[in-house]
Design brief:
single chain, D-Amino Acid Oxidase, Chain A, domain 2, six-stranded mixed sheet, 21 strands, 34% helix, binds flavin-adenine dinucleotide
C-alpha cells in the first residue's frame, strides 16, 4: 500500500519537527523552504532547550519530551550539543524568595535545587561572586548550536526518514490537497504550514483573525572566551519575571515592583539577560522584546548596552568583545503557547511557539501528529 503524503511548508524548527513527527506516523513527507537555507528565528536564537522556563505539567512535560528527542537526534547525528544545565544567579533576598518558592513547588518534578554561592561559583567560571546569595540550579537545560544544526537536520531527516527537502522554493498558494510552487502543483493528503513570522503569504486572513503578533529580539555574540568552557547557561533575576514557570508565584509581584523602579529601561524594552556558550567558546547574549506587526529594521545600540549593563550584574566579565549582533523575529499568540489552526480541510497551521520553539517544537509536533492537541 502506498504511504499517505504530507507537505510541510517551512524548514525552521517547527517545520522540521512537524516533518519528523509525520514521518514517524508513516507519512511520506516533502518540505518546501523558500530560502536556500532556513534563516529565520530558528537560526537566530540562543540554541537553548530550556525546560526550566516552562510551567510544570503539560508544558514542562512537552519540553522534556523535546529534550529527549534532541538528545536522541544529537547522539545519532553526531551533532554538537551541551547538556550543561542552567543557573539563575541570585543577589537579593526577593530573588531568593522567588527561587525558594519555585523550588518548593517544583523540586521533585524537575531535579532543580537552590545551591549556595560557593557551589554556584564552582559550577560557573564567569558568575559574579560579589554579594552572590545563591543560585537556582537545574540540570535539564541543553544547548545546541542552532545556526549549524538547523542547516544539518534536513540531511539527517532525509537519511533517517526519507523526507525530501526542496530549498529555494516559495509556496505561493495552498488549497486542500494542493500546494503551488512556481505555478507547479504538488498534491498531498495533509499540508502543514510552518511559516514562522510570515503571516502575509499563506492564509493571511486566518493569521489576521487569530490576533497573532510578532516579536523582535536583539542578540549579540562575543569573541571566544579565553578560558574556554564557562559552565552552565546563565541568567540573573530578571529572567524570573520572564518565563511562565514563575508567573504564578506569590513572591513574584514584589520582585517585579523593585525591577520596575531599579531596571526601568530594561523592563521597558522587555530585556532579561541569558548567556549560552557556543562550541567555539563564544558567548551568545540577549535579549530584548519589542512587539508589533512591523519593526524598525535597524538595531538599537542602546538596547545592546542595556543588555550588557545587566549582564555585568551577574557575571565577572570585564571586557565583553562583541563580534556579532543581529535581531530575530518570532510569532506569538498573546496568552497562548502555540497557534494551531485548520484553515481548510487537511491544511494545518503550526506556529506561534514564541520564545520557546527550540524547547517545545519536537514535543508539540509529536502531540499534534497524535491528535493530542
Ligand atoms: C533571538 C531569538 C532567540 C530565541 N531563543 C530561543 C531559545 O534559546 N530557546 C527556545 O526554545 N526558543 C528560542 N527562540 C524562539 C525560537 O527560535 C522560535 O520559536 C522558533 O525558531 C520558531 O520556529 P519557526 O519554524 O516557527 O520559524 P522560522 O525559524 O522563522 O521558520 C519559518 C520558515 O518558514 C519559511 N517560509 C515561510 N513562508 C514560506 C513559504 N510561503 N514557502 C516556503 N517557505 C516559507 C521561512 O523561510 C522560514 O525558514 C528565540 C527566538 C529568537 C528570535
Amino acid at each position: 500500500m502506498s504511504k499517505n503524503k504530507a507537505i510541510v511548508i517551512g524548514a525552521g524548527i517547527v517545520g522540521l519537527a512537524a516533518a519528523r513527527a509525520l514521518a514517524e506516523k508513516g507519512f511520506k513527507v516533502k518540505v518546501f523552504e523558500r530560502n536556500e537555507q532556513a534563516v529565520g528565528a530558528s537560526v537566530r536564537n540562543f540554541g537553548m532547550v530550556w525546560p526550566i522556563g516552562q510551567p510544570k505539567g503539560k508544558l514542562f512535560d512537552r519540553a522534556m519530551r523535546s529534550r529527549k528527542i534532541w538528545l536522541d537526534i544529537c547522539a545519532k547525528g553526531k551533532f554538537w550539543h551541551h547538556p550543561n544545565g542552567s543557573l539563575h544567579l541570585l543577589y537579593h533576598n526577593d530573588e531568593m524568595a522567588v527561587a525558594e518558592e519555585f523550588m518548593m513547588a517544583n523540586h521533585e518534578e524537575r531535579g532543580c535545587d537552590i545551591i549556595t554561592a560557593k557551589q554556584a561559583l564552582q559550577k560557573s567560571t564567569i558568575a559574579r561572586a560579589d554579594e552572590l546569595k545563591g543560585a537556582l540550579w537545574s540540570n535539564t537545560e541543553l544547548i545546541v548550536e542552532s545556526r549549524e544544526i538547523i542547516g544539518q537536520l534536513p540531511a539527517y531527516l532525509e537519511e533517517k526518514y526519507d523526507i525530501s527537502f526542496k530549498f529555494g522554493k516559495a509556496v505561493t498558494r495552498v488549497k486542500t490537497g494542493k500546494v503551488f510552487v512556481d505555478e507547479k502543483k504538488y498534491e498531498a493528503d495533509l499540508i502543514v504550514v510552518c511559516s514562522g513570522a510570515d503571516f502575509e503569504t499563506l492564509y493571511p486572513e486566518t493569521f489576521a483573525k487569530s490576533g497573532i503578533t510578532k516579536c523582535k529580539l536583539q542578540m549579540m555574540r562575543t569573541e571566544a572566551m579565553p578560558k574556554g568552557n564557562v559552565g552552565p547557561s546563565l541568567c540573573g533575576g530578571l529572567t524570573l519575571t520572564h518565563y511562565g514557570a514563575f508567573a504564578d508565584l506569590k513572591s513574584l509581584p514584589a520582585l517585579k515592583k523593585r525591577y520596575d523602579k531599579q531596571w526601568t529601561e530594561q523592563v521597558k524594552w522587555g530585556i532579561h539577560v541569558l548567556v549560552s556558550q557556543s562550541p567555539n567558546m563564544e558567548l551568545t547574549l540577549g535579549d530584548s522584546h519589542e512587539y508589533g506587526q512591523v519593526f524598525d529594521p535597524f538595531d538599537k545600540a542602546a538596547i545592546n548596552q542595556l543588555v550588557i549593563d545587566y549582564l555585568k550584574t551577574f557575571t565577572n566579565l570585564k571586557a565583553i568583545p562583541i563580534s556579532q549582533s543581529w535581531n530575530g523575529i518570532y510569532a506569538k499568540l498573546p496568552g497562548k503557547t502555540e497557534f494551531i489552526a485548520e484553515p481548510e480541510k487537511g491544511v494545518h497551521i503550526l506556529n506561534g511557539l514564541s520564545g520557546a520553539g527550540m524547547t517545545l517544537s519536537f514535543g508539540l509536533a509529536e502531540e499534534w501528529a497524535e491528535g493530542a492537541v
